[in-house]
């Protein structure tokens, strides 16, 4: 048996099947949320998503079959490229929902923040695995520098949602990377103390309005709290089994959910209305299976570097799921974070599939790494 065929047969097929099932369902959900629109751009959302899924699948397969240890040489260049893209976005990026967070390079339109977080996970995993004997405080400071540079550039856009993503990802990597628990507890206490100060002094006006609408949704039901109230109405009206695929007279069709965001930020609201509690639980269950499969791969990783890569990517996906679903059911403030593999997000689908390809590569090459 050739090495290529051995690797192909050794793929984690549960990871592959779950990822594809979620991606295909995402295309169906986007179609159901946008098919009624008359403009040609909106009608093509699901087709564009399908194209990105196809490209992402190719990236997943290629990454799965290449030894993940190549990241030792590719992590830093990708990290620097992410920083360069973020700087370019500040000057020539496209503004969406008040944040200059999108960059056009020819026919490609993407969010550099999403490239930066994947590259940041690679660099952090490499650093934490290579310098395990360094003093914990020095490791923390250097990790702070690695994360601080892209976070500062993302905050300048300003994109609070993508900045928050870094927090749980960094904590997960620090915990698994061997940083003593007392240091992590101190970090959490400092962050908890700083949140009220940042909320009052560091946020833009529209971001403060979102926080106010989250705490007191009854204050401005037709303004800042409109989106979250309509999201709750949509999910609640779906009931047990939902109103059905492409159902008429829904919050989606009548335009109560924001037409510019129902296919990305509020896709879970659309799914809750059309597929009901059952559909929502099946979706969350599928995400749970995906995350558990990733953790299973982490448990059998052949080295510390592979373990950290898988934990970082798993934390990234979990945080996106938690934030997106949480904001649509009023557990968290609205932050504009896409739902992995489901939301219309173009390049984000590619990045998530690329990350899952790294997870699969850790699985495929676990025995080689352990030697």
Structural class: mainly alpha
Q: Say how many strands there are.
A: 3
Q: How far is the N terminus from the C terminus?
A: 21 Å
Outline type: globular
What can be said about the biggest beta sheet? 3 strands, antiparallel
What is the total number of structural domains? Answer: 1
Q: Estimate the strand proportion.
A: under 5%
Rg, alpha carbons: 21 Å
SSE series: HHHHHEEEHHHHHHHHHH
Chain-averaged pLDDT: 85
Helix content: 55-70%
Strand order of the largest sheet: 1-2-3
Low-pLDDT parts are none
Tally of alpha and pi helices? 15
Protein described:
This protein has 371 residues and is mainly alpha-helical. It has one domain. Helix content is 69%, strand content 4%. The chain contains 15 helices and three strands. The protein has helices at 3-9, 13-34, 40-43, 45-65, 71-92, 112-130, 136-155, 160-176, 181-201, 205-215, 226-237, 267-299, 304-328, 347-364, 366-370, and strands at 94-96, 99-105, 108-110. Helix 8 packs antiparallel against helix 13 (304-328) and helix 11 crosses helix 12 (267-299). The longest helix is centred in the last third of the chain and has 33 residues, at 267-299. The protein is globular and about 60 Å long. The model has no long low-confidence stretch (mean pLDDT 85).
Keywords:
69% helix, mainly alpha, 371 residues
Describe, in short, the structure shown.
This protein is mainly alpha-helical and 371 residues long. The protein has helices spanning 3-9, 13-34, 40-43, 45-65, 71-92, 112-130, 136-155, 160-176, 181-201, 205-215, 226-237, 267-299, 304-328, 347-364, 366-370; strands at 94-96, 99-105, 108-110.
